[in-house]
């Protein structure tokens, strides 16, 4: 279990997140634990308000749990400062959101190279990496377009490219197909699946069961707690 | 380092793209920063151009050729001078003998020389009457005189009866012959043979003749100056000449004052100047930052999603902050460049306009680059500073909330309002300290501190307003709630208005209090609207040896003012031009102690301070000066004298001793024996300025040997305009025994004060409108989705107008009220010491505090209402359609 290959890329241990305090306290997550391994795509399902998105923001270090631990590639996000968490987002974690969330003032290529540039990678090298990432997703020709010059599907591909650029191993996707038609949505999921098959660990938040079919495993959340898990953890399969 | 620069590169790229994408918002911010830069650059260039520097001015003083001017001081004393004697010199020990030009040549060697042009006043006759103009006398065709005058038409004067004049003199309608009035009143004529342009004077009248051909009515007492050529003088030569009592203006030395020692310059005043400059810069910086603030705040808000994404992609808060700051940096650089370039252009275009209002010729177009670099840096700094708070707020936002489409503002900290109260308190204490003697600068800095404190309090006040708005109609409620929801945009807008109003109120209080002091401490010489005519000989010398022909004078007055009642004022007649007569009143019991009876001060607009009258026809000023129960007319008709005193104990006297002293320059010469006459002594307090010292009935005047004669004409209500007064004056000056007229017009406010007040009011209104309207524009564009929702639920189109008007009113009214409160602090503090002391010798009770309530009402209530109405009328009323998601 301690070998690098078998260590989970993302591990949530007894994570609880409470918003507010006293009578106004809202339990967004209650003692949630689960792991995601390299090459594995885990779907998180549940009704609206069940804590799916909170789980992703905690996994990405954008928010901190009230209790419990979040480990990304062995680093405990609850034990490091915000600068270190920001660095992890630049080097290990990639986000894909429902409404694409590309920075409108940057071209596709610049959006993809953004995490690298923020990390201090020289512009030329960052652009080269971005262009490779775009190429792998079959959209190298879009590099110089601005977000508002692309279709929703194209924007989401760029967002995936941004999430994986620079060899990042954890992709957190929050309803990535929510704003797309079903054909394009399937394309995006195929891409995500492919990235995971190529060695990344993916967490896919969705409320559509047919999308969950692309995942290796499905975690069901209700009222902030895990109520069911379908499928075997990759580690169990491998071991 | 490299990584740091890379971080800025992304920030700059993001900021640049954002600015290009949201041009309207960028232009608002740009204009707010550019305009002050442009205005300051324009003003600076024009001031530098109008200011004749030592280097520029020296050619006007030495002409084009001379090396130096040497002037043997008539006082026969050693002198000490700085590099330029025009700026500073002092006389020292007396010399044993007068210095000659040969002594000068002993120091500087033999050189060609020319008498420097002499300047004096000259009285000429024009179709308007007799006028005083400037006259210069110089050997205008000599090589050393080159550069003093430029011949614009005709030829140079060649004979003693020829002169040249400038265009301003020609414009007075003198034709080709100039009539000159000499000191003794004789007139002679000169032929005008040419028109010249004087090197210095532009609008004043100038007459130029050959040396010794024009009367010199005035003399500066400095002695003749000599222009010399040859090599430049050395500083040691200058010092040796100073020891001979010779002042030296050397072209090189005077135009490079910093290269030579200046024993006269004690360096004082530098730190004050620096402080004042720092103060102005700080205040301007605050104002510009506040004005530009809303645009940057909205910009930062619009970018909040991009910034949240940046953070989600691994950007640090510092990197997010940098994006906003980069926007300020880019706009600041653009504003600096555009402002400086535009300012240079505007100054170039305005140069002729400024020349028209300037009596002297402007210097060459002068672009003070070091100043402009500083102003450009100021523009850049104000843009960046305006971004600091939005950037800080943007970096603190809740990324998760923003990404989820909610507002991600961090909670406002309680510390800021507390700090605001503390700062405001410190400001008030500083103002009190300044008012109680620590100086005006302290008061000015207190204003800065108060304004900063107020800025921190604005969010609290706005939230109170929003809370109170629940009872108001929808548009006002919407506007107030919107204002508090968008604190980052509202706060600088409200604060900008408040800072402006604070300045206007503070300066308004101090100027109107100052004016009140001037008005109340003004002592009229006559009853308002009345005039007096007294002998006025101008430059006439010798004076006519006969007394003024008052019938003739009265005829001229009646001709010019037919409606006026003209009556002679009889008083102590001055019988000679070389001596004067003084009437002395004393306590008859104590004449030995020479204890005189007199008021503490008296004016003599009536031409005398002792009036002779039987009480029947007192001049109106005299009649109105006494109250009815003092019974002055009755006292006089009963043959008793009326004498004023500042010593209350003397009012018990029933009679006074009178004697008449005749004095000349060396003191009293003749004194009549004292005569005791019946009198009523009236008390006047120290601060009273009496129009006379005593009134004597004719019988008493005769007994006391007082030479009674008509000394003036009392002209009741002549209704003379200033123009008519000028005509009357010219006509009176033309009489064989010339006279002058004085018309009491009451206190005349200084034109300069008026102009300053108007400029202040206009500037304040512009800044207030600018700040309010930009905030309103930004608020409307921000409120688009909300207005769309309003439309969707059935709001009438005019709702948009009403919301815009209400928002405008909330911002400007809250700002104006806050500003008024803040403005009172420095306003009162600076007024207190300013008006507490009267002029020396008078004991007027100060301080004079006058609050210009009308002006404050206009600024605090009128302007916000007007702006709101204008906005309400001119805002597009069409409501936007419900915005599509995304």
Concise structural overview:
The longest helix of chain A is centred in the last third of the chain and has 16 residues, at 182-197.
How is the topology of this model organized?
The complex is a heterodimer of chains A (239) and B (886).
Chain A: E1 10-19, E2 26-36, E3 41-45, H1 52-59, E4 67-72, E5 75-76, H2 82-91, E6 93-96, H3 108-118, H4 123-136, H5 152-164, E7 170-174, H6 182-197, E8 201-205, H7 209-212, E9 217-222, E10 225-230, H8 234-238
Parallel strand pairs in A: 3-8, 3-9, 6-7, 7-8
Antiparallel strand pairs in A: 1-2, 1-4, 4-5, 9-10
Helix pairs in contact in A: 3-4, 3-5, 4-5, 5-6
Chain B: H1 2-21, H2 23-50, H3 54-62, E1 68-72, E2 77-81, E3 89-94, H4 101-108, E4 113-115, E5 118-126, E6 129-137, E7 149-154, E8 162-166, H5 167-170, E9 177-181, E10 187-198, E11 206-209, E12 225-228, H6 235-243, E13 246-250, H7 251-255, H8 270-302, H9 304-312, H10 317-356, H11 369-395, H12 399-403, H13 415-438, H14 440-468, H15 474-485, H16 487-520, E14 531-535, H17 550-560, E15 565-572, E16 580-586, E17 610-612, H18 620-625, H19 632-637, E18 641-645, E19 655-664, E20 667-671, E21 675-683, E22 694-696, H20 698-704, E23 708-716, H21 722-733, E24 739-743, H22 751-782, H23 784-792, H24 798-836, H25 853-874
């Amino acid at each position: 279990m301690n070998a690098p290959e078998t260590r989970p890329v993302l591990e949530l241990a007894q994570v609880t997140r409470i918003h507010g305090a006293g009578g106004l306290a809202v339990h967004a997550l209650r003692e949630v634990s689960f792991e995601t391994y390299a090459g594995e795509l885990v779907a998180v399902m549940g009704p609206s308000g069940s804590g799916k998105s909170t789980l992703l923001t905690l996994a990405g270090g954008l928010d901190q749990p009230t209790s419990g631990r979040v480990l990304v590639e062995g680093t405990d996000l609850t034990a490091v400062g915000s600068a270190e968490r920001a660095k992890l987002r630049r080097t290990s974690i990639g986000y894909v959101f429902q409404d694409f969330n590309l920075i409108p003032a940057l071209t596709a290529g610049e959006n993809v190279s953004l995490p690298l540039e923020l990390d201090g990678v020289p512009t030329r090298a960052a652009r080269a990496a971005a262009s490779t990432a775009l190429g792998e997703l079959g959209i190298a020709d879009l590099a110089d377009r601005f977000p508002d010059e692309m279709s929703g599907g194209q924007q989401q591909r760029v967002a995936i490219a941004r999430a994986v650029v620079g060899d990042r191993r954890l992709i957190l996707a929050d309803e990535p197909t929510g704003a797309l038609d079903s054909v394009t949505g399937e394309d995006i999921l195929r891409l995500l699946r492919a990235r995971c098959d190529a060695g990344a660990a993916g967490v896919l938040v969705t409320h559509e069961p047919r999308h969950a079919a692309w995942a290796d495993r499905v975690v069901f959340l209700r009222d902030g707690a895990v109520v069911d898990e379908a499928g075997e953890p990759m580690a169990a399969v491998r071991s | 380092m490299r990584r740091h620069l890379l971080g800025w590169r992304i920030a700059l790229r993001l900021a640049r793209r954002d600015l290009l994408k949201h041009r309207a918002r960028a232009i608002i911010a740009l204009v707010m920063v550019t305009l002050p830069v442009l205005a300051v650059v324009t003003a600076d260039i024009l001031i530098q151009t109008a200011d004749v520097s030592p280097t520029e001015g020296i050619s006007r003083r030495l002409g084009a050729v001379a090396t130096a001017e040497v002037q043997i001081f008539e006082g026969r004393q050693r002198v000490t001078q700085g590099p330029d004697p025009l700026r500073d010199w002092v006389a020292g020990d007396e010399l044993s003998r007068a210095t000659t030009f040969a002594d000068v040549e002993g120091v500087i060697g033999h050189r060609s020389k020319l008498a420097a042009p002499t300047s004096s006043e000259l009285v000429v006759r024009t179709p308007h009457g007799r006028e005083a103009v400037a006259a210069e006398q110089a050997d205008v065709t000599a090589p050393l005189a080159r550069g003093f005058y430029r011949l614009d038409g005709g030829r140079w004067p060649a004979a003693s009866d020829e002169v040249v004049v400038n265009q301003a003199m020609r414009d007075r309608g003198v034709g080709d012959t100039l009539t000159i009035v000499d000191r003794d009143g004789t007139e002679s004529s000169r032929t005008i043979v040419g028109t010249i342009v004087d090197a210095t004077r532009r609008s004043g009248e100038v007459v130029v003749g050959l040396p010794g051909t024009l009367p010199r009515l005035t003399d500066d007492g400095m002695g003749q100056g000599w222009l010399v050529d040859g090599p430049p003088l050395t500083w040691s030569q200058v010092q040796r000449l100073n020891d001979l009592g010779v002042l030296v203006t050397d072209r090189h030395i005077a135009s490079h004052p910093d290269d030579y020692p200046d024993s006269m310059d004690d360096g004082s005043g530098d730190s004050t100047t620096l402080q004042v400059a720092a103060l102005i810069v700080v205040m301007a910086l605050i104002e510009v930052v506040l004005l530009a603030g809303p645009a940057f705040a909205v910009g930062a808000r619009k970018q909040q999603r991009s910034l949240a994404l940046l953070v989600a992609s691994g950007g640090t808060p510092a990197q997010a902050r940098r994006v906003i700051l980069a926007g300020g940096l880019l706009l600041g650089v653009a504003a600096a460049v555009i402002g400086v370039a535009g300012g240079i252009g505007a100054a170039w275009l305005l140069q002729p306009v400024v020349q028209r209002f300037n009596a002297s010729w402007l210097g060459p177009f002068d672009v003070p680059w070091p100043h402009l670099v500083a102003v450009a840096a100021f523009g850049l700094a104000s843009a960046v500073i305006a971004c600091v708070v939005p950037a800080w707020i943007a970096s603190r936002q809740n990324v998760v909330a923003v990404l989820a489409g909610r507002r991600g503002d961090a909670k406002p900290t309680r510390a800021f309002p507390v700090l605001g109260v503390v700062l405001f308190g410190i400001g008030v204490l500083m103002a009190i300290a300044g008012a109680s003697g620590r100086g005006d600068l302290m008061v000015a800095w207190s204003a800065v501190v108060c304004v900063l404190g107020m800025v921190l309090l604005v969010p609290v006040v706005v939230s109170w307003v929003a809370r109170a708005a629940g009872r108001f109609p929808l548009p006002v409620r919407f506007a107030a709630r919107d204002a508090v929801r968008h604190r980052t945009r509202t706060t600088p807008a409200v604060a900008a208005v408040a800072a402006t109003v604070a300045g206007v109120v503070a300066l308004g209080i101090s100027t109107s209090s100052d004016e009140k002091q001037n008005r109340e401490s003004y002592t009229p010489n006559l009853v308002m609207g009345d005039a007096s005519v007294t002998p006025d000989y101008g430059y006439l010398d010798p004076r006519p040896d006969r007394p003024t022909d008052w019938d003739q004078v009265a005829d001229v007055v009646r001709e010019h003012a037919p409606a006026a009642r003209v009556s002679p004022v009889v008083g102590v007649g001055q019988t000679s031009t070389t001596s004067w007569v003084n009437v002395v009143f004393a306590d008859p019991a104590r004449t030995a102690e020479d204890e005189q009876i007199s008021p503490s001060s008296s004016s003599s607009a009536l031409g005398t301070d002792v009036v002779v009258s039987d009480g029947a026809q007192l001049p109106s000023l005299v009649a109105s000066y006494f109250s009815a129960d003092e019974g002055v007319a009755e006292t006089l008709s009963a043959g008793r004298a009326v004498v004023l005193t500042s010593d209350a104990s003397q009012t018990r006297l029933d009679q006074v001793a009178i004697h008449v002293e005749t004095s000349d320059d060396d003191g009293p010469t003749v004194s009549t024996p004292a005569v005791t006459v019946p009198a009523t002594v009236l008390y006047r307090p120290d601060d009273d300025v009496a129009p006379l010292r005593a009134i004597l009935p004719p019988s008493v005047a005769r007994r006391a040997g007082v030479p009674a004669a008509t000394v003036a004409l009392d002209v009741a209500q002549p209704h003379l305009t200033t123009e008519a007064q000028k005509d009357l004056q010219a006509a009176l000056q033309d009489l064989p025994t010339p006279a002058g007229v004085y018309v009491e017009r009451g206190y005349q406010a200084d034109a300069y004060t008026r102009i300053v007040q108007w400029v202040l009011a206009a500037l304040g209104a512009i800044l207030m409108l600018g700040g309010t309207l930009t905030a309103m524009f930004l608020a409307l564009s921000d409120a688009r989705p909300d207005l769309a929702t309003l439309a969707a639920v059935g709001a009438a189109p005019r709702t948009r107008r009403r919301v815009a008007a209400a928002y405008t009113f909330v911002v400007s009214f809250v700002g104006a009220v806050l500003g008024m409160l803040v403005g009172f602090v420095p306003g009162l503090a600076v007024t207190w010491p300013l008006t507490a002391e009267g002029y020396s010798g008078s004991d007027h009770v100060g301080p004079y505090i006058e609050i210009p309530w009308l002006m404050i009402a206009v600024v605090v209530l009128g302007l916000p209402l007007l702006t709101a109405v204008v906005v309400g009328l001119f805002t597009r009323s069409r409501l936007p359609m419900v915005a599509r998601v995304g």
